[in-house]
Each structure stands twice: as C-alpha cells, then as structure tokens.
Amino acid sequence: MLTKSQVKYIQTLNQKKFREENGVFVAEGQKIINELLAARHMEPTAIYATPEWWLHHAAIKNEIPFVHFQEITQQELERISFLTTPNQVLGIFKKPALPDEPLYQQGISLVLDGIQDPGNMGTIIRIADWFGIHHIIASPDSVDVFNPKVVQASMGSIARVHVAYHDLRHFIGEHQEVPLYAATLNGKPLSGFGKVSSAFLLVGNESKGVSRDLQQLAAHHITIPKYGEAESLNAAVATGIILSHIV
Amino acid sequence: MLTKSQVKYIQTLNQKKFREENGVFVAEGQKIINELLAARHMEPTAIYATPEWWLHHAAIKNEIPFVHFQEITQQELERISFLTTPNQVLGIFKKPALPDEPLYQQGISLVLDGIQDPGNMGTIIRIADWFGIHHIIASPDSVDVFNPKVVQASMGSIARVHVAYHDLRHFIGEHQEVPLYAATLNGKPLSGFGKVSSAFLLVGNESKGVSRDLQQLAAHHITIPKYGEAESLNAAVATGIILSHIV
User: What pLDDT, on the 0 to 100 scale, is given for residue A63?
Assistant: First the structure.
C-alpha cells in the first residue's frame, strides 16, 4: 500500500523546485517507461505499477538493483498520476547528467528562446529525436524539460535528446563558429535554403517569436512561406518543417 | 451579474451533446474572439467580458444586433472559463453552416482519420489555414471541432477552415477524381514528391496512423525520412511537414 508520505512526495515532483531538490523526475505510461528503462543513462529510483504491468515486467526486479519496486492498485495509481488517463505504471528517475563536452560543431542543434508550453517543448524534443538531433539549448525562461507534461509529450525521446539551459546571448557568442539560423516571419523563404551539415536553429517563444537581440546575431533568417491567413504556425510545427527541409 | 443558470449553461457547452442541442460553441481570449468577430460567417450569440475588454470594444454593441453583451468581473470570468488563464473575454457563437458545395476538386484538402487529441486537431486547423487550405474532412470518431480546446488551439483559424465529418471510405469513394495521398511510416520519401495542385492528404490517428483499409485506397504513400530514433512524429507536425513540401 502507498503511504501518505509517498503520495505527497510524488505530488511535489510536479514542481520544478522539488524536482531540483531531489534530482529526480516523474515519467508515466507503458511506452515512455519502457523507453527510459531501455536507455542506458536513465536510472530509475522507483517504479510503481499495477498488477497487469508487473505481469509482463516481473524480470526487471532482478535486473536493476537499488530501485524501489512496488505493486499498487489502479486507485492508488490514480492518486499519484499526473495524467488524465493513468496507464499502468509511474516511474521516478534520476535527472541524467549532461554529457561532459557536447560537440555542438557537429550536426544541427536546436536553440530555443523562451518556449513556454510543456506540450510544445515535449513535441520539439520528439521532433529533434526523429531528425537525429541530440542537443537542445534552451533559454533559462523556457519550460523545465523535466516537467511531467514535457516528459509525456516527448513520448520517450527525452531519453535520447539532451536539453541544457544557458543564457543564449552568451552561449551563441561562445560558439560563433557554428552558423546560426533563426526561424522568423520575415526572412528568406525556406526554399532558398539547402541541406545544412552544421548549424544552430533558433526557434522563438510561442507568441513573441525569437527576441530581437538574438535575431540580430543570426546570419540566416528562415521563413516558412504562408499561403493563407493564419497569423503564425505553432512553434513545434515550424521546427519540424524547417528541420525536414535542412537536415 | 452572472446568474446561476448562465454559468450552468456555459459549463454544459464543454460537452458535444449540449453544443449540438444548442447549435453553439464557446471561444475565448482577445485574439480568437477578435478573429471570430471579424469573420463574416461567424455569428455571436453572447459576449461576456471584463471591463478592460469593453474599454476597447465598446463600439461593438452598436455594430452587431441580437447579441447578449454583458460586462462581468474577473472572478465571474474565472467561473465560466475553460482556460487555465482566462483572458478578458468569452464568447458564445453559432456553429457555422457548412458551405453548400465545397469544391474539393480545387486545391488540397485534408482528410483526418481518427484524430483524438483536441490540441492536435486545433493545430492542424491552424496549419491548414497557414497553407491556404479551406476544407478538412474528418472521420466521425475524430474529436469535435467545436470542443473548446480545439477552438483554442486553432488560434482563430477555425473561422476560416471548414471541418466536415464523413465516413471516410464512403467520402473517398465519391471523390475518386481527386488524387489521394496518405501519410504513412513505410511509403515513398517526401523528397520523391513535387508540388501538388489538387489532392486529398490523409493523416491518421495519433497512435495507430491511417487505418489499413484507407491506406489501400491511397495512390501515393508519403513518408517523412527519419534520421534518429523517435518512433513517430506528432500528427500535426507530420501534417505541417508534408504540406510545406507539397503546397
């Protein structure tokens, strides 16, 4: 049975402050838990699951040491879950350490300026993973990547894409050898760009776009041609369209 | 002051059943309300807004007849709003009549097979609007386009894109003159396709994709090349990427 303090502890992990204090985050659902358990650098500290999940994952208890495994009822899962429809299993994982020296010079990395919506952040991580991008650099005011809704929307891709938070002006200044492309509404049409082997792709806040001072640092401004009336595209969709073109 | 029955009525509109009974839907926030008020075929039945909104929209009371206009407090807005952060104004609008004879033969239309997530549906409507697409045909099991979350995610584009619900097999059978493209995970790479002037683009359910029997009806199967590990792309993102390529 889940104790009151277990329930309370898990609930606090909805807040960034408590995730940082404890160095852990929550992930849920069969697919995402399986992806995280399969990723070498992801360490669970606890797995809470209903009998139907344990039925197919009993072996795991012998495979991973030092983890708190607990069978809980559907009702208990509903008490601790952050999902509208809890799905068999909730895990607590250690926040992974960032790789020592990310090789930003190789390939494409995403630079996110103030992405606020957890769904967008998770979707962007999933898109990065699809296009083989391993590094995302986010401004400090972007949503926390270990927010349960981000973890959920990333559909497990959080296990393969590293997100680091930096002051972007400073970060870009320190990596001037990498060509900087900004997604803007008044740049050169996408069709004017070819494949790119090394680049930072700078994507802006959902309503304000890329901030002006950062736009000025970008050598290339990419715009997705508009044929209709919508004022803008969703930030994650725009990221996907540009990556599909330049990767 | 809002009466109890007003509050109750608005709250019921979160359910499809009551939206259909009353032939209306709810939209919220300055941007979306402004877009809907600007669209000729959108008729409000009631506008509830805080004093700060009325300050800039007082003239509207004389411009549109037969509408219930009411000034409410922030607290009242919070009681009727479906948003986490209510934004000055909530409107009730008549569900627009579908155009008499949509010209599916011209341009590109989207055909959606079981899109479940309101955020995805709204984002797809916004993408369609960006690319100048006016018609979406959705399977009957797709989420209702007048769900408040869909309206919200469409960011006002719902005023310019018509969504009709049809049995897709039947609908496609009746429009065999229009080339059918399906977004799948095992088709021909996107780069193998050029611009398209007339087409149905068939996009599938978030987890199951396009159903098999519909895939078989499609002359062309489009796949977005994958360079990394993610199992799939978000349905709205995939729609945006393919449209960006073929429009």
Answer: 84
**Which of B85, B133, B193, B229 has the highest number of chain A CBs within 10 A, making it the mutation to test binding with A?**
B229
Complex-level ipTM: 0.90
Alpha-carbon torsion, ordered A6, A12, A16, A22, to 10 deg: -30
Residues of A in contact with B230 (CB under 8 A): 126-127, 129-130, 155-157, 160
Tell me the two tokens of residue B66. 């037969």
What's the maximum distance between 2 C-alpha atoms anywhere in chain A? 61
pLDDT at A141: 96
- The shortest C-alpha distance from B59 to chain A (Å) reads 25
Q: Which residue of B has its CA nearest to A190?
A: B244
Reduce the DSSP state of residue A185 to 3 states and report it.
strand
The C-alpha atoms of residue B56 and residue B200 are separated, in whole angstroms, by: 42
pTM of the model as a whole: 0.92
pLDDT band at A106 (very low <50, low <70, confident <90, very high): confident
Domains and CATH numbers, chain B: 4-94 (3.30.1330.30), 107-246 (3.40.1280.10)
